[in-house]
Amino acid sequence: MTILIKQARVYPISSTILPSADVLVKDGLIHEVAPSIPEQPEMTVIDGTGCHLLPGLIDAHTHVGLYDEGTGWAGNDANETVEALTPHVRALDGVNPLDVGFKDAIAFGVTSVQVMPGSANIIGGTTTVLKTHGKNVEKMIVRETAGLKIALGENPKRVHSHSNNDSITRMGIMGLLREAFYHASRSDRKEHPRIAPIIAALNREIPVRIHAHRADDILTAVRFAREFDLDLRIEHCTEGHLIADDLSGQNLKVSVGPTMTRRSKIELKNKTWATYGILNNHGIEVSITTDHPYVPIQYLNVCAALAVREGLSEEKALEGITLNPARSLGVDHRIGSIEVGKDADLVLWSHHPFHFEARPLLTMIDGKIIHKK
């Protein structure tokens, strides 16, 4: 199918905004971007005059399809809490692609997500990157294994402490984590399901994605990654603004959020929308996340707009929901910007996506119009 979108305001993200341009989509890919592309009889032509064309939004930290909305306990498959260390479990195996969260994502311009195990366990399992359209999760995969989920702080302490006399501490969490990586590095069973994901992280084939809210937990994650020479991503980074000087210069990629929620636990007491701008100003690459379902995924653009209100530049906020998450997830060769040869995941907005009236008029995934208003 060949689709021509004409005379939209185009935001390539990887280059300067084009005030009025055409984008040609062919065979699922972006085929051409130019000031004017001649119409041909075989083309489906869409008038983008007065509209804003962006790459599909990407949420780098979600549990969409693992917390099946509206089903309660029966649809909660995000945390395998029978033990504290579960490197062998895969988010991919728990995703319900018919979860309404995927439908909401499409309707509000989110075309790709990273689905992660929850943060109840010290090692929670492996993550996956999916397109948001499909009925068979195997056909939605962008990157089958995108990281190894690790969690520090309150969540594993709470879940795996059974009483005042039977509790796990931050010391214990790090002891178990180091022990797991030490034993994996010396194991002669490299293909064992419990060993292989850790070996992949040790070989830097996948990053470790470490859940850390509190400043000391964030720095512990940095220290642990340095100790084992790991490719590190910080998930949440809630108090990152308090230690931005310490994080600067370390080539870090972080996902910040969910910020549009209440301070529901102690380690969220210093949560602020200013974190995004402060981290960015210290040279840290920031992805903006909803952590769906904690903030519903349809509000990803709203979260980015609020970050702009509190000091993040508009340009960096757009990168934070497109190209930055694509780079963090290792899929920027396919998605995250409007460039020739990349997947035709495009969203035509009624207004700039940070405007309070903005709505996607059209959402395209792999060159197919999935949503149209």
From TrEMBL:
Query: What are the Amidohydrolase-related domain coordinates in residue numbering?
Result: 53-369
Alphabetical list of SUPFAM superfamilies matching this protein: Composite domain of metallo-dependent hydrolases (SSF51338), Metallo-dependent hydrolases (SSF51556)
* Any GO MF annotation of the entry: hydrolase activity, acting on carbon-nitrogen (but not peptide) bonds
Concerning InterPro entries, the annotation shows: Amidohydro-rel, Metal-dep_hydrolase_composite, Metal_Hydrolase, Metallo-dep_Hydrolase
In its UniProt entry, what is this protein called? Amidohydrolase
**What organism is listed for this UniProt entry?**
Guptibacillus hwajinpoensis
